[in-house]
Fold:
Amino acid sequence: MRSWSFLGALALLLVNESSAFKAHDFKTCSQSGFCRRGRALSARAKEAKSSWVSPYSVDPSSVNVSPNQAVFTAAVQSSLYPDIKFGLEVRIQDDGVARVRMDEVGGLRKRYNEAAAWALISEPMVSKDIKWTTGKKDTKAVYGDKKDIEVVVTHQPLRISLLRNGKEQVVINGQGLLHMEHFRNKVESATSTEEPAPEPEEGAEGGGEIQTVLKVDNSRAWFEGDTEDALFEETFSSWTDSKPKGLSPSRRIFPLDTNMNSCRSRVAVSRYKLPKSRNRLRHSSTRHAPCPSLNYRQ
Structure:
């Protein structure tokens, strides 16, 4: 009898817990602006197929390698916004991790960049046994005890790949989906206060002609879409986020476009390296060798 009472109490407890969850208080992707923009970008790339090309490229004249040969830096250009500057840094650490960082340079605002001070005991040491070689099309570095790991930064379009024994293991921007939404000011739509032109008198010369207003094409629509989706204002339920400073770091779209080929995941997204207990991809029955370590940070 006691067991039945216990089961009944447990059932009531579970019912109360499940009824306490309110799904409508949590955004779905279709209700979140940055998620909609990311999925729309992927859909446009899929529709364009082989004609899709990433707008980001490395300026070859800006390529610089540190004296100890471990750190590669370069300016990144975007054909969408030629006036916006981005900076790329790839460094090989003493523990073999390739650390990739990319951010806007000289923008309207600086994003929060103090997470490492809270998350890391100390900055990782940079390797002193690395040698970068720069060519016309790419910049490379080979390292590892057996010199079997290679980092390749392709200049045009921007593409970063990690290889082991000549086979690609991890690729950034391999599908051309990488996109950094820079900080920008809201541009108010122009409003016309002019009175409509009078209709031509009957019999007047040119009276039969109809004038049409030409719509200016958006040259970035092929990549970003033809409309601004929740860039400066977003509404969910009864709340409205006015975003007075525009795109915030947490709500800017930043597709990583990372492919992992024939290896277990060892990618640290944003700022942190995944612990070894989470290195293996979930729900996978196939066993693969570990990927070369990659730490990617915005």
Q: What stands out?
A: The helical segments are 2-20, 33-48, 115-119, 221-224. The mean pLDDT is 75.
